[in-house]
Design goal:
By secondary structure, this protein is of the alpha+beta class. The chain has four helices and seven strands. Helices cover about 25% and strands about 30% of the residues. Strands 1, 2, 3, 4, 5, 6 and 7 form a seven-stranded mixed sheet that branches. A hairpin with a 2-residue loop joins β3 and β4.
Length: about 130
């Protein structure tokens, strides 16, 4: 198992405003994306291994559980379409429905992309339990 991750994927410009992106549309293209900047979230996105399982969210809402299927790369087409500089191809493992919604605020502090490493944390167990029900 390559690990669990959580990402917020609706704001290419972060909290600085700008356009919003539809995570659903990106996932239909089988990609996840992030802007390129110097920071922990961006580095974790670049270094996440193929096979990693990612909970994609929009705000507090779970959108889907995906598996990373490619290395991190730049792609002009996806940048023009979605506004993110970096992308990874993914396989959608499951789309969230009302039974997969976390309690409000569970992932609020995790930022743009975060590797979850502590199996004693509620966020880790939320993804682990969902993944193991598939």
């Amino acid at each position: 198992m390559a690990g669990y991750y959580v990402m917020r994927m609706d704001m290419p410009n972060g909290n600085e405003g700008g356009s919003m992106v539809s995570p659903d549309e990106m996932l239909r293209d089988e990609v996840i994306g992030i802007s390129d900047w110097d920071g922990e979230a961006c580095e974790e996105f670049k270094e996440a291994p193929i096979g990693g399982v990612v909970l994609v969210r929009e705000g507090d809402e779970a959108i889907a559980l995906v598996k990373i299927m490619s290395d991190c790369a730049h792609d002009l087409l996806f940048m023009q379409k979605y506004g993110f500089a970096l992308y990874r191809h993914v396989e959608v493992l499951d789309w969230a429905d009302s039974s997969h919604q976390p309690r409000t605020g569970l992932f609020r502090i995790t930022g743009a992309f975060k590797h979850l490493t502590d199996p004693d944390r509620e966020q880790y167990n939320y993804i682990h339990d969902w993944y193991n029900r598939l």
